[in-house]
Amino acid sequence: MLDLLAQTGLNAVYAASYISLVAVGLVLIFGVMGVINFAHGELFMAGAYAIVALYAGLNVPFFLAVAAGLLFVGCLGLLMERALFRPLKDNPLGGLVASIGFLMILQALAVMGFGVRMVHIPPVTQEVIAFSDKVRLPVARLYVIIAAIVLLSALWYFLKRTRFGWALRASAQDPEAAALQGISITQTARVAMFIGAGLAGIAGALTAPLVSVNPHMGHSVIVTAFIVIIVGGVGSLEGAIVASVAYALVHTFVTTFWDGVLADIVGLSLMLVVLIVKPTGLFGSADRA
Amino acid sequence: MISKIVKSGLTRRTFLKSTAVTAMSAGLPGASLAAGNTIKIGFLAPLTGAVAAWGKPGLDGCQIWAARVNAAGGIKLGDGSYNVEFVSYDNEYDPAKARTGATKLIREDGVSFIMMLGGDTWPGVQPVAEKTGMLFSTLLPSDLSPDTNMLIAPAEVHPIYNVTGVEWLAETKPELKTAVMCAQDDALGLPSVATYLAAFEAAGIEMLDEPLLFDPATTDFAPVVTRLISKNPDIVCLDTCYSDYVHPIAEQLFQQGFKGQIISCTADFYDQMIAKTSEDFMEGFVFQFPDFDDPALNGDNINFTDPNGFYEEFNRRHPGQWGAVSWEYASIMDLWKAAAEKAGSASPDAVAAAMKEGKGKHAFGDADWWGTELFGIDNALVGDWPVVAIEKGKARIKDFRSIPAWYAKHGDLLVKHMKAYDQMWDQRS
Question: Out of A111, A118, A261, whose CB is closest to B247?
Fold first, then answer.
């Protein structure tokens, strides 16, 4: 039983890692730009396909391909900011609708480029850290966990300890007041979009060898991310991380000790309970809810 | 579940669908067929999405079949010879889209017959079938009921043939005493769960746990696998999981240190599974779908023209894409063609009547129209089915087993488990 608990705990840590990378990116974009990016799951998918193209297709070393995937998806984020969100910033629903259109375009491009079916990616490593016969952590999953810890810590430092981070937070809290202080709202939006998209991209790139890479893979990821940011509080980075961990723990343990269908019901119920008890989410503020 | 909730509110794949199908159509043979001298056959299956592996390769197989038949002079009916042309519609494994597709294929394209994967999509199509009298085929006899007179299951008797794999495993490896199972919670997974439960019970293999059901939207299978192997089973059964699930589950079994027996309905693209695990790990993996270069398919009992040549041509056109259904829709077309030529007509009623006269020429041997007890109607063609195992990295047929013979001995168990999972024809709404 202890082994089962330990293995389930490791599974939950992995799940929390990639969910939090995606959810924090989504929250960052919403916090700074006020846009719900429906195409965020497809940015995750784009990161995975970067690995298909570079690592599986061109034999580029895996971590170089991951870095390229991060840059590529970050640039996709910049493109979205310039072409979609900036022209529609005064239209409350415009950004949301445009992002839905963009996700369809990304899916269609994936289909045209790579086909409709699951794509095979050779394993990066088959090494496994065996704590015991029954408690094992594949090294490929450890990469995702380490990346999440490093990147989210770096993001926390950037936002809390650097001048540009302060500017970003100021733009999120009160764009007009920030602009009066000389902060470029356009510049902060660009940076937020690049970082937010890049986080989704690197999550997709790192998990690509571990999941089924297909044009629709972003769908379930975005659903999970939305549950997480609603529970954590829309606009709260801390909330997104805490909720990712909570959701991953609940979902993983319920799947392991009951079944996967019930885990989905429990996850959604958790969201409903939080919304009933605290409509702004665990860490959300009323003005962003 | 969650995906369905979201999908119902977001029809975001329409653009994707049209793009994908256009892209696919561009690669099809551009044989010029004289209008009025062509029979059109509808292909209504998932060509995109998670279930595409059981649609798209079937369409690819049909194109090879059409090229062969047309080159040999076409289909000979009472009033002359006809070339055959396939018209496809991507239903994305969505009942509403399947209904739209069926209507379009019948009214706009004028098809004479429609082939489907079936499953979750059949309820959407059934009203169209009743209204038009069109002849449909499914790969999933669990779609059949007394109300489906014009629905036939002439190639695949999913999930009933899964009993043959378990029966063979129990006879050849009697040391395997315990099993666990997982499946996606849908119309493909659940009847298969009931079938495997019956097969394990008949074989005296103990289920250590209730079958673990997961949402079709699942992407991370580590928790599923942790649960599956927590009780040290001899056998892990992957039911009729889609290939998008079989691959990551197999990889997780490998990474979490499972060293026992795996049995699965399918093992599409098993070479990729070997690449992600190891040849040793996959050795002995049992499933139900052979590669058609298998020497065992050259016997006199096989009613599929030149299976080895078909496999070679398929791999020439679509390298690395051979899967469970690559031959199945083509095999249905063999039966349809024979029936149409016998009836001298392509009309759905005439073909259906001719097809069901006497024994049917199933791909794996002569078979009987069967199913009243289980499906409420004798519209499934049931006979022998192969048991396949991976040996040194290659799928090999180990045996052909009779499904009716198993059912004669253990049919009550199958009915019991089907009822427990609400999968009998009179329980399905």
Answer: A118
